[in-house]
Amino acid sequence: MTGTKRYKILLVGSPNVGKSTIFYTLTGRYTNVSNYPGTTVTFTEGSAKIGEHHNLLVIDTPGIYNLQTITEEEEVAKKLIIEGSPDVVLHIIDAKNIERMLPFTLQLIEAKIPTILVLNMIDELKKSNMDIQISHLEHDLGIPVVETIGIKNIGIKNLRARIISVAEKRYKFSPIHIKYPEYIEQNIIKISQLLHNKYTISKRAIALLAMSGDASIIKLIRNENFFKEISEILKNIPPLKARLDIENTRFNYSTKLIKEHLLVKTKREEKLTRFIDNITLNPFTGLLFAFLILYIGLYKFVGQFGASFLVDVLETFYEKQITIHINNFFHNIFNTNIFFDLFAGDYGIFTLALRYALAIVLPIVAIFFSFFALLEDSGYLVRLSIMLDKFLKKIGLSGRSVIPLVLGLGCGTMATIVTRTLETIRERYMVTFLLALTIPCSAQLGVILALLGTSFTALSIWLITLICIFAISGAILNKALKGEQPVFFMEVPPLRIPSLKNITLKTYERLRWYFVEVLPIFIFASVLIWVGRITYIFDFLSYILSYPAKWAGLPTKTGEIFLYGFFRRDFGAAGLYDMRDLFTVRQLIVTSVILTLFVPCIAQFLIMVKERGHKAAFYIFLTVVPAAFIIGILLNLILTPFIE
């Protein structure tokens, strides 16, 4: 039987299970990133074709642990599952953590959603000397189960065949029945009998979610004729107790399946993996390990190799091989009038904007994103989150906030978008503020590491100042902002040797996103500078900024750097790199601190408006600007007796 229908396939699962890899393997490329209506959460869509007649719309949903959601991203994933009417849902799990992830599979089965269980990274399970009896698992769950190794394209052919079988309704699902505590079962029957509308999931699943206090499900059933009677039933059920009893029952059911049928253990787990886990998660050795990783990755790789070596090579090439020809070309067209300065000269689009974007910013950002992808793919980034959770809780954050904060070292704009994965609005606001004030983007970081890296004292002062400001700002926000403290929960993936294919793919996608976003703004900034200079507005603003620069003991020309920094942080960093010979060591330290703390760039500011609202964005703006200069002035006073 062949068909022409375009089947909708959803990829669901918790973070770090290889969903994006499976998505890329099925579709061959990323095609469209969309916002879910009414939210800022994005999901990725791609097209795939199986055989001659089977067209697929494949959707990579945000990470989700179960249908009882916490974050906005999880809620969007749930809506795509429940309201999106998928033909097939691929529940992708890390095979090594099957016991913890199987309860969500059970929830999908109970909801009567056409599900295929995808045991990804099966090779890592087998390296731990364990195996899964697939036929037993399929029989007990009553759904298709497929083993895959996404990064090696293993098992994908079988997965495609199973997708078509389920989409065309040729696979006969065998329902399972999980026995919950008596009071849960009795109320499932009562609530189910009062549900008369049509739903895309089973009434049993709706009743279970309603008893757990799920707000979106209760909202969904409000137009039921007997909603008043349902509400009376729910009033007598403590939602937290019900949720814990339901989740414990599912977990126990999963554990029973694993013990009785599914896993065959032949040897002990490898001692090396356990040893590395102990090192990376121990508070003392984990901190030393993190320092070593960041020292090698950020200082040596991003700072010295990226910002010093690559930037020097590319900038020298650009200046000697490209800038001269550009100046000559536009000089022949415009001579030396004002239009020459728009395209060439000191501030032209081709000689300033493109040189900054291609020769200074691009190599640093590329190096950082490859380093970040390596941390992700190795499984270490989650361990870093867990290790820092205790420290971050002291200032009202959780370990989950490590991801946007570390990503902010690449691009503050992208990191601000990622704050939507945080659990509470309070935590999102705090991380957005800290990203704007204390976290340098990769170009800033690379340039500063290149400028201060020759002096351990100078680099240490800059770093200690930022850490202190981060801690003080976080403590103040923690006291000032009302709201619940976040609860931290994150699945720990196994440590693995990073895949070159994965690192290349992730780096390419982030770099493409960044470059599409940054190049137009660099050009726009260059045009604004040109307009500002011919109208003297730019000179006036630089003049105003020269006063706090002078108060901080800096050359008056430093005002231009800070003005550049508003157009783009990395634009200002590139400007500082250009003017480095004008500064003493003390002035370089103070300028680096002010530039790091100074107002976020236009792109990040606009994203702040979009994510946190106009009021919050302007409040952050009006707080960060004076704070940067006040701290710079105080730092200069402290350093003057000691450093020239």
Give the gist of this structure.
This protein has 28 helices and 9 strands.
Write a structural description:
The protein has 644 residues and is α/β, with parallel strands linked by helices. It folds into 3 domains: 6-167, Rossmann fold (3-Layer(aba) Sandwich); 182-265, Helix Hairpins (Orthogonal Bundle); 281-490 and 504-639, no CATH class. It has 28 helices and 9 strands. The strands form 2 sheets. Strands 2-3-4-1-5-6-8 form a 7-stranded mixed beta sheet, sandwiched between helices. It has a two-stranded antiparallel ribbon with strand order 7-9. Strand 2 (32-35) and strand 3 form a beta hairpin. Helix 20 packs parallel to helix 25 (569-578). The radius of gyration is 28 Å and the shape is elongated. It starts with 5 loop residues before the first strand and ends in a 5-residue tail after the last helix. The mean pLDDT is 84.
Keywords:
about 650 residues, alpha/beta, Rossmann fold, Helix Hairpins, 3 domains, seven-stranded mixed sheet, two-stranded antiparallel sheet, 9 strands
Residues in helices, as a percent range: 55-70%
Order of strands in the sheet with most strands: 2-3-4-1-5-6-8
Strand content: 5-15%
Compute the number of helices.
28
Count of beta strands: 9
Query: What is the SS-derived class?
Result: alpha/beta
Uncertain segments: none
Question: What does the largest sheet look like?
Answer: 7 strands, mixed
Number of domains: 3
